[in-house]
């Protein structure tokens, strides 16, 4: 089921979002100072291609630099990207068939709002639940 949802997502939303994030990542790499934001853009682009079956979690080793970078990202890009995901999520949720895709857009809001200090992990893995012992 995850594969089917991911394939439909790829056609209707994922490819375009991943392309946008990848272009933003390339621009960030050209402006050498913003390379950490470029890495985050590529990470989000990979997540935007195939979001079902993956989840975002905070990294334990993220420090103060990630927090400062997230504030800068929030001001310049995070708010606008999150608003775009909210609008797309609401539009997808108008139809019953689009509800899973709308929820996927809502799932992408935290990582697009503050991407530094986060990582994408498979949903069923132990890495998705760091405090839980299997």
From TrEMBL:
Keyword Membrane: yes
Pfam families listed in its UniProt record: YccF
Transmembrane intervals: 30-50, 62-80, 86-106
Membrane is among the record's keywords: yes
Keywords: Membrane, Transmembrane, Transmembrane helix
Source organism superkingdom: Bacteria
Inner membrane component domain ranges (all copies): 4-54, 68-118
Name of the protein this chain belongs to: YccF domain-containing protein
Organism of derivation: Streptomyces gossypii
């Amino acid at each position: 089921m995850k594969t089917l949802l991911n394939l439909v997502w790829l056609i209707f939303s994922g490819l375009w979002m991943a392309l946008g994030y990848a272009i933003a990542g390339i621009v960030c790499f050209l402006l050498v100072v913003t390379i950490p934001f470029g890495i985050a853009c590529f990470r989000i682009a990979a997540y935007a291609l195939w979001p079902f079956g993956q989840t975002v979690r905070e990294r334990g080793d993220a420090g103060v630099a990630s927090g400062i970078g997230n504030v800068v990202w929030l001001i310049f890009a995070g708010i606008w990207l999150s608003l775009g995901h909210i609008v797309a999520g609401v539009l997808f949720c108008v139809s019953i068939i689009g509800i899973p895709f709308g929820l996927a857009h809502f799932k992408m809001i935290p990582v697009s709002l503050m991407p530094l200090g986060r990582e994408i992990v498979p949903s069923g893995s132990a890495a998705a639940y760091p405090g839980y012992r299997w």
